[in-house]
Design goal:
The model is unreliable at 17-26 (pLDDT under 50). The chain has two domains: 2-147, Vanadium-containing Chloroperoxidase, domain 1 (Up-down Bundle); 196-226. The chain is elongated and about 80 Å long. By secondary structure, the protein is mostly helical. The longest helix has 23 residues, at 49-71. It is built from seven helices and no strands. Helix content is 56%, strand content 0%. Helix 1 (2-20) runs antiparallel to helix 2 (25-44) and helix 2 (25-44) runs antiparallel to helix 3 (49-71).
């Protein structure tokens, strides 16, 4: 489970870094450093692949909101954070990570705080630093509040019962209840889902079945070379 999460994290890291970069190389370094720290902390917590994915999404969304509240380079969400002019982006990144991670994996708080304090030491004390920390904390709190009832903690109810025409996975799916979890950007989990197969007693199902039987039979005289 942990190995799977670590593998997935190695895939997500460059994607997250590319999406979240917002400014100079210094800011890119801060972002990628925290991406790596957050990934390691979450994977080592033993949450499992899907909970780690959710946690990383919360962390990255928090950082995006915090940084964008300062830079205003990208679309603004309806959270509508207001950052003081000149607020430190580096401080905002550190605070957003710290607040989100501390809530998501409190068992790793000591490790989180070590990383947080190490980051703050490199930032000059002053109003910019304080304002950056403030907006980072606000961003993480807002994102965490939005995801608190997203359905991720719902109990597992999958039971492989079926009837003719209804597919049952040959392997028990991981966290099947997450299919009903609140999406991040879609209006519902089913927004782009295709419709169900036709009923077994419908003319369309009979037509398709007969077509497969006619063309797919071993000695079919209707099947073309193509």
């Amino acid at each position: 489970m942990i190995r799977s999460a670590r593998t997935r994290w190695k895939i997500l890291l460059p994607i997250a870094a590319a999406v979240m970069l917002a400014g100079s190389m210094a800011k890119a370094d801060t972002m990628t450093d925290w991406n790596r720290k957050a990934g390691d902390i979450l994977v080592d917590s033993g949450l499992g692949p899907l909970p780690v994915d959710r946690a990383l999404a919360i962390v990255h969304a928090s950082v995006y909101e915090a940084v964008n509240a300062i830079t205003r380079r990208y679309p603004v969400s309806d959270i509508k954070l207001k950052a003081a002019s000149g607020a430190s982006v580096d401080a905002a990144i550190a605070a957003a990570n710290r607040t989100a991670l501390a809530k998501l994996v409190p068992s790793r708080l000591a490790e989180i705080d070590v990383a947080y304090q190490a980051a703050l030491i490199t930032i000059v004390d002053g109003r910019a630093k304080t304002d950056g920390i403030s907006v980072g904390n606000e961003a993480a709190a807002a994102i965490l509040a939005r995801r608190i009832d997203d359905g991720s903690t719902a109990g597992e109810t999958y039971r492989p019962r079926t009837s003719p025409g209804v597919y049952v996975p040959t392997v028990i799916p991981e966290a099947p209840q997450w299919a009903k979890m609140k999406p991040w950007l879609m209006t519902s989990p089913a927004q782009f889902r295709p419709g169900p197969p036709p009923p077994l007693d419908s003319a369309l199902w009979a037509r398709d079945y007969n077509e497969v039987k006619t063309l797919g039979g071993k000695h079919s005289d209707r099947r073309t070379t193509e």
